[in-house]
Amino acid sequence: MTMAALDTNTPVMEHEDTRDSRRLGIWLTLPAQILVLFIAVFPILMQVYISLTDWSPLDGIGWWQAHELWNSFANYSDLMADDRFWSALGRTVLVMAICVPVEFLLGLGLAILFVDDFPGRRFLYSVLLIPMMVVPAVAGYMFFMLFQSGGPVNDILSFFYGAPVTIAWLADPDLAFFAVIVSDIWQWTPLMFLILLAGMVGVPEDQLRAATLLGASWATRFRTIVLPRMKTIIIIALAIRVIENFKVFDNFYIMTGGGPGVATETISIYIYKVTQQELIWGYVAAVALVILIALSVVSAIAIKRMSRGVSQ
Amino acid sequence: MNRSLSFEIFRYAAILTIVALSLVPTLWMASMAFKPIAEWSATGADLTWWPKSPTLDNFRFLFGESSSDLIVALDRTAARPILASLLSAVFGTLIAMVAGTSAAYGLSRFGSGGNLPLALIQLRIFPPMAVMIPVMIMWAFLDLIDTWYGLALVYGIVTMPFAFWLMKTFFDDMPREIEDAALVEGCSRLRVFWKITLPMMRPALASSALFVFILNWSDYLIGLLLTTRDWVTIPVYMASLSSSMTGQLYGAKAALGLIAAIPPVVLGIAIQKHLVRGLTFGALKQ
Description:
A: MetI-like fold, disordered N terminus, B: mainly alpha, MetI-like fold, two-stranded antiparallel sheet, globular, transmembrane (chain B), MetI-like (chain B), MetI-like_sf (chain B)
C-alpha cells in the first residue's frame, strides 16, 4: 500500500522533444477539459443567471430570455426565510452526524476482526461487501419492503415480543427517520470496513511484533501503533462518507419520498421536489447555487488541510 | 499474533452475526422474487420467509406475460428499461474511459491539464441534484431528454473523475523504462502510448472500466431527471410496478431488483482488488 493522496504535482521527467510532448499532452487532456467545461463551468454560469430571475420551464419563454423575469436578488432573500430549506439542510447534517460515526465504528470493529487470517476470511470478506454493491435505488426498494407493516422486520419483532407487532414504520416521522438511517448504515458500513481494513493491513507487522515482545497489551498496540499509522486513511474514509452522505437521495426517496410530511427530506430530496412539484426553477437554481458555493468553500479548506496532513 | 480460544469464538460469533444481518435484506428480496402473489405480503403470523411454492411468474410477468393471479398485465415490459440501463451505462463508461484515460496519461507523462485533479475532485463533491438543474435545461434545449445517448453523455461526465484518478495511479505506477526504450528506437510519443502503453495497461483498463460501469449502472437520480418514458432506466421503471388493483407488485419489483443487483455484485467481487483504489480516488492502493 502506498500513499498518493492528493498528489497533484506529478513530477515530470522530460528531456527531449518537449514541444511535441507538450502538444500531445494538451491534445490528450482536451476531451476531459471540454467535458468539465460542458458539465461544470457552463451550467454553473447558467445557474447564476437563472437564479436571479423568476424563470420556470412553464413560462413559455426560453431560458436565455430569463432576464425578462429579472427579480434582483429576491430568490436569495426568499431562501433566507425558507424554513423548509433550512430544516432540510439541518436534517441532512443530522443524518450525516448519525450515519458516518456509526458506519465508521462498525467498519473499524469489523476491520479489527478481519485484520489477521482465519479460516473462511476471504469468503466472509466478499459476502460482507455485497450491500455496498447493491444498486442504492434497489436497496431503497428492499428496505421499503422490509419495513412494511406486514413485513419481515415486524415479523422478527413479533417473534421476540411474543405477540403480533404491526408497526407502520414508514408512516411515522420518527420511525421513518430511523428506517432510512438503518438502510444507509446497512449499505455503507462495508465501504468503511473495506477502506479501514486496507489501511490496517498496511501497518508494518514487525513493529507490532516488537511491541508485543515488549509486553504491550493489544489495546496499547492498537492505540499507539495502529491508529496513528491509519490517520490519513481514517481521514480519507470519513471524508468520502461525509461527501457521499451529503448527497443522499436514492434510498431515502424510494423508501419515504421525503415523508411522512418532511420527516426524511434531505437537501437533495428538497431540491428535487421543488423542481418537480413547484416548478419555480429560478428559485431552485438559487438554492442549488448556495449549496455549491458552501460546499466549494468547505471542501477547499478541507483539501488544503488534508494535503498538509498527508505531506507530514 | 497469538490470540486465545475465547477470542476466536468471539470473532466468529461477531462476524457471523453481522454477516447474517447484512444478508437479510438481499435474501428477502431474492426470496420475494420467487414468491407467488399469495405469499407477497402477509399480516403478522403467516409471513413466509422462504417461498412455499417457488415460481418464475414474477420474471415472466416482467417480460409481458399476463398472469392469471395478477389480473393485470404490463403495458410496457421491463425489456426496454433494461436495454436503456445497459446502453447508457456502457456508452457512459466508454466516454468516461476515453476522456479519463487520455487525460490521465497526459497529466502523468507530460504534466498537462494540471487543473484537472482538483476540478474533478470538486465535481465529485457536488451533489448531482445541485448541478442537474441547468443540465436539465440544456438537455431539453438540445433535445437530449429521454434518449439513451443523452443519459450516456451525463454518465460519462459524472464518472470521468473516477476513470481519470484510477488510470492516473496506474500510469504513475507503471515503470517508464519500456516507454523510454521505444522512444529511443524512434517511435513517436503517440505511437508509444497507443502501441505499447495501452496494451500493457489492459488489466488496469478493464478493472477501471468495470468500476465505472458499476457506478453508471447504479444511478437513479440522473435517470429520474433526464428520462421520462421511452428510455427510463431500471430503477425509474421500478416505481411504475404497482397497480390500483393489486397495490405494490412486490414480487415483480423484487424480481427486477434482483436482475439489477446481480451485475454490480458479480463485477464488484471480480474487481475486489481494485475497489479501494477506485473508491478513494486512487489515494489508497491495496
